[in-house]
Structures are given as structure tokens and as C-alpha cells.
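Sharing a chain and its predicted structure for anyone who wants a worked example. Both blocks are below, sequence first, C-alpha cells second.
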Amino acid sequence: MARKIIAAEELEADDKDLIKLFDRRQELKNYQFILKDKFRPFTVTEPVKEEFKRQSDKLFENFDEVERSETFSRDLLKRIIELQKDMQDIPLGENFYDYINPKDYLSSLPQDRQFASLPEMPAPMNPPAPVLSNEGLTPTENALLTEGEKQIRLRQRGLA
């Protein structure tokens, strides 16, 4: 958004027109932050929480046995607020990762978290052993291999 404002200024757009535009879009606070060269992170509003819950419910409707925690726990909201406060100090145009390490905001899974185990799987089946003729070769090998190849096969099996 800051780049668009700079471009508008380069094209000699009137400041009053920009203010009207941002006001009409209900983005006047964002415009003021940009003018102060400040980053304003988005917040988790009630409509955002509701949409997240709706999409989460839709995603999990086919997975009845999957256990999940509440949508926005207090701990998660606390971490988001902490991240928002830290992000406000980032000057516009700077590299985000010079100021924020995302790993600092990730929580590990609770120790008591249980995961559903996979169902019992059948043991892998071994293919049936080939039926060998008196000569130590299968009927297919006998029919398709040359005499030299037959000797190699018998040596591989320790029969030659």
C-alpha cells in the first residue's frame, strides 16, 4: 500500500483526494500509519475468528475422530498480540526477518496431546517362490534365456 501511495505522489495526486479515498475504503488509520512510516499489522477481529471457525468446522466435518483444540485459545491470542506489538516497530520497507524470527512465536505441542494411532496393518505378503524345475530354472527362464544366461542364473542360485 505504501508503494501505491508513493506512486500516487509521484504522479502528483492531491493529498486530499488520497485522504478521501482511504476514508471511503475505511482505511484512514492505515493511511496515517503509512505516512508516519509505520507498519500496522492486521488484528484478529471477531469476524476473522468466526470465519476461521467456519472454515475449520468445514474442514474437519469428515474427520470425526480427529481431536482438536478450541479455535483461538488464550495462549494463541496472547502470542498473536505479542507478535503484533513486535511488528509495529518494523519500519516500512525493511526486511521483516531482520526484526522477527517466526520460530520465537511458535508453541510446541502440549505434552499431554494424544494422537490417534493408525489402524493395524496386515503384514506384507511375500510373493510365492518360483517353481523350479529339476534343472533349477523356472519354466519361463527355461523358455526365454539363452544357454549362457541359464548358466549365469544357476550360478546366482548356487546350483552351477
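Comments welcome. Residues 2-105 form one domain.
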